[in-house]
Design goal:
About 30% of the residues lie in helices and about 25% in strands. It has 14 helices and 24 strands. The strands form six sheets. It has a four-stranded mixed beta sheet with strand order 22-23-1-24, covered by helices on one side. The termini are close together. The protein binds uridine-diphosphate-N-acetylglucosamine. Uridine-diphosphate-N-acetylglucosamine binds next to helix 1, helix 5 and helix 6.
Length: about 425
């Protein structure tokens, strides 16, 4: 197994190019199931989750050709409609194939994703919405068995909670349904918006894109032609490297970034003392000498993202004063706290609220990555820790960060990948 060894540094300097967004790429790859043509996708990140989803599609009979940051996916050859446990257990987002496969083939089986390090993460809202669209759903031997022999029917769906992959799944199902589907309390994340825009530009009319009420005009079972497109930049990867600039007091420039998607993150970094030079597709962070404490509540987009909570917690250990970070989306998303405490962080946890009393001097030690974003929090802490930090179980990091050690090395970090 690989691990990362990081030595604390004085400062970083240079430019980091941001990759395509993992969380946009996954639903967009699943969306190719709705296409009758071979779909060309550009600006994909080279991360394990993307390869996992392409493997899932390949197992179903699709052909996927992934080179550099491009893939060509042909789903016209799909013969299987069962997403098996061996793949789904490694990536919960596999559930994204349920809506489009059911809509196209009238039946689909997907292994139940099971537990997850950051919380229960049920998929009840996906299933309830598909049932409303006329699907018959049974849970049998750990699998969701969904059938809709006469196709899915458009209807009104109200999500009790905002769900990102739930919204994407139902938009894809609704795209091939008969009639119109109106989704209320839809997710407005940029990743969902991009999928809606692409469908809308390729024959599936969608109203309300970017709002909480989406109306999808179904094609009544007809597959669509999807023209080549490029995935939006990864706002979470960008946010993570902005935190790297802030925590090491270093001026860093990010290229190929979409500043509009980072408003909440930039606002919190500004509160903590950083300033920025922003162009259409670059952000340069001018960090402050002293980091100010902050109050953060994670919420759905456009509010502060839960996927940046762990990184800001690491940053708060270097702020002068008391920071309060409240996690509202996932009940167990504080696994990184005990690892940061091992490095010397003064963090107390009360339910879903973490209180960080900074500034803490951190020291390098052995720590364990527990989930994707928790891993990047440990990387940030290691950058400013005294001595050497070994971060184990970095397969979590590899699921979602494209060439993290190469990108950080380029700007002066002392980081290397080693084998246990
Ligand atoms: C997506 C992102 C993940 C991010 C999360 C929240 C992808 C691949 N993953 O995950 O990185 O952290 O959004 O921004 O895009 N819920 C239910 N029932 C459901 C579905 C969700 O109760 O059927 C709850 C969840 O437990 C959670 C909340 O709704 O508390 C939001 O979850 P959701 O938006 O669905 O997260 P994901 O789409 O899994």
């Amino acid at each position: 197994m690989d691990y990362l060894q990081i030595k604390g540094v004085k400062s970083l300097n240079g430019t980091i190019e941001i990759s395509g967004a993992k969380n946009a790429s996954l639903p967009l790859i699943a969306m190719t199931i709705l296409a009758k043509n071979s779909v060309h996708i550009k600006n994909l990140p080279d991360v394990v989750d993307i390869k996992t989803l392409l493997k899932l599609l390949t197992n179903l009979g699709a052909s996927c050709n992934f080179h550099d940051d491009k893939v060509v996916v042909d789903t016209s050859t799909i013969t299987e409609t069962k997403a098996t446990y061996d793949i789904v257990k490694t990536m919960r987002a596999s559930i994204l194939v349920l809506g489009p496969i059911l809509a196209r083939f009238g039946h689909c089986e997907v292994s139940l994703p099971g537990g997850c390090a950051i919380g229960q993460r049920p998929i009840d809202l996906h299933l309830k919405a598909l049932e409303q669209m006329g699907a018959n759903i049974k849970i049998k031997s750990g699998y969701i068995e969904a059938t809709a022999p006469n196709g899915l029917k458009g209807c009104n769906i109200n999500f009790d909670k905002i769900t990102v992959t739930g919204t994407a799944n139902i938009v894809m199902a609704a795209a091939l349904a008969c009639g119109n589907t109106t989704i209320t309390n839809a997710a407005r994340e940029p990743e969902v918006v991009q999928m809606c825009e692409i469908l809308n530009a390729n024959g599936v009319k969608i109203e309300g894109i970017g709002t909480a009420i989406l109306t999808v005009h179904g094609t009544d079972g007809k597959c669509i032609d999807i023209k080549e497109f490029s995935v939006i930049p990864d706002r979470i990867e960008a946010g993570t490297y902005l935190c790297a600039g802030a925590i090491t007091h270093s001026e860093l420039t990010l290229s190929n970034v979409e500043p509009k998607h980072l408003v909440a993150v930039l606002a919190k970094l500004e509160e903590m003392g950083s300033s920025f030079t922003i162009t259409d597709d670059t952000i340069t962070i001018h960090p402050s000498k002293k980091i100010k404490p902050v109050k953060i509540v994670t919420q759905e987009y456009p509010a502060f993202p839960t996927d940046m909570q762990a990184q800001f917690l690491a940053l708060a250990t270097q702020a002068d004063g008391v920071s309060i970070i409240e996690e509202r989306l996932f009940e167990n998303r504080f696994m990184h706290v005990s690892e940061l405490q091992r490095m010397g962080a003064d963090i107390s946890l009360n339910g879903n609220i973490a209180t960080v009393s900074g500034k803490n001097s951190l020291s390098g030690t052995d720590v364990m990555a527990t989930d994707l974003r928790a891993s990047s929090a440990l990387v940030l802490a290691a950058l400013v820790a005294d001595g050497e930090t070994d971060i184990h179980r970095i397969y979590h990091l590899d699921r979602g960060y494209d060439n993290l050690e190469g990108k950080l090395k380029n700007v002066g970090a002392k980081i290397q990948r080693l084998k246990e």
